[in-house]
Amino acid sequence: MTDMMAERTQLVTDIMDGKIPKRVPVVGLFAHEFAIQYAGKDLKEVQWDTTDLEACFEKVCDDFYSDLLPVSAFRMPSFYKVLGSRNFVMGSNGFLQHPEVEGLKVEDYDDFIASPYNCIVEKVLPNLYSELNSDPATRSLVMAKAFKAYTDENNNLFRIYGNLVNKYNYCTSTFFAGFCEAPFDILTDQLRGFKNISLDVRRIPDKVEAAVNAATPLMIKMGTQPFPNKYNATFIPLHMAPYLRTKDFERLYWPSFKKLVEGLAEKGMRANLFVEQDWMRYLDYLEELPAGTIMQFEYGDPKLIKEKLGKKHIIGGLYPLTLLKTGTKQECVDKAKELIDIMAPGGNYCFGFDKVIITLDSVNVENTKAVLDYVANNASY
């Protein structure tokens, strides 16, 4: 391990141990779509033939400061194409889209509640993936092809990640060692859809409650890392809570989600939450989660977030990508300074943007570089 890698790793392990690090860790997050565009490559071509993907990632690593690996590819199109996916579809612009889908019919709630895994295999997957809606022999062949494509893609990505971590001396810990969803969110995103779940909450809340409870053990299993490590984290994007009435959140969203995070903690893992949209009315709930939970906020009052959560949890996010697009370089740097002055005192803070940077035109590149460099050089304790 080089001195730079050791120093960066120490920053993150100190944060996760509840210690004040030498300086604020910088977490730059760029999607593979941005990296491909930034490198001047064709977005559609590189996603199907990933020969040039590593070079695209290197371009981002060369030009943008981060203490953790700043680039990742979360979903590649190959295995979705093999499956005939309806829930993730490649758009004509080269971006993978997530259309509104209904994987679980309302009449199948009882089957899901009784045996969620069996219901997913027997009913949900054929609804979401057209090539699985066939005879058993054909389904087996399709699933084998898709799994081969999935493992090939991921093995290549993990090889690239390892190369980049070593070449650029990034921190060896990761905030993305596993992935799952809150039980209510998986019910919404992949099973019922936004429209249907909104109706279900009002018409059949008892079944919704039973379904999220049934899904919770599956989400704990899904989020369990192959080699649990308190210095890594399982990523959980939070979707539906801001769209729920508080009373529905308290009954249908929070109990199963809390059980999920606590279940991961009991196995020696911590959660890395992307707190999407505005969770300000739920800050007291988030405070109840196991100490050291990582929370990257999209919106909110940084002073109140720091006051309520900053002593117990690791907080970040909130820097607006819109300012990187529209502001002057000085305005962008001043905003970073403002957030650091509020969030950094006492530790438990990682600098990051309010969203992953996905498209090249969503930010001004020079502003983005200036902000990341400023934090790296001026956020020492």
Structural class assignment: alpha/beta
Order of helices and strands: HEHHHEHEEHHHEHHHEHEHEHEHHEH
- For the terminal residues, how far apart are their CA atoms? 24 Å
State the major sheet: 6 strands, parallel
Number of E strands: 10
Mean pLDDT: 96
The coarse silhouette is globular
User: What portion of residues belong to β-strands?
Assistant: 5-15%
Task: From the alpha carbons, calculate the radius of gyration and give it in angstroms.
Answer: 21 Å
The number of helices is: 17
Helix content: 40-55%
Strand order of the largest sheet: 5-6-7-8-9-10
Low-confidence stretches: none
Please describe what this structure looks like.
With 381 residues, this protein is α/β, with parallel strands linked by helices. The protein is 54% helix and 8% strand. The protein has helices spanning 3-16, 32-38, 43-48, 53-63, 78-83, 109-114, 116-128, 136-168, 183-192, 194-203, 205-223, 246-266, 283-287, 302-309, 321-326, 329-343, 365-378; strands spanning 30-31, 71-72, 89-90, 96-97, 178-179, 233-238, 270-275, 294-297, 314-317, 349-350. This is Uroporphyrinogen-III decarboxylase. GO terms for molecular function: uroporphyrinogen decarboxylase activity.
What's the helix and strand layout?
Elements: H1 3-16, E1 30-31, H2 32-38, H3 43-48, H4 53-63, E2 71-72, H5 78-83, E3 89-90, E4 96-97, H6 109-114, H7 116-128, H8 136-168, E5 178-179, H9 183-192, H10 194-203, H11 205-223, E6 233-238, H12 246-266, E7 270-275, H13 283-287, E8 294-297, H14 302-309, E9 314-317, H15 321-326, H16 329-343, E10 349-350, H17 365-378
Parallel strand pairs: 1-2, 5-6, 6-7, 7-8, 8-9, 9-10
Antiparallel strand pairs: 3-4
Protein name: Uroporphyrinogen-III decarboxylase
Organism: Desulfosporosinus youngiae DSM 17734
Domain Uroporphyrinogen decarboxylase (URO-D): 176-375
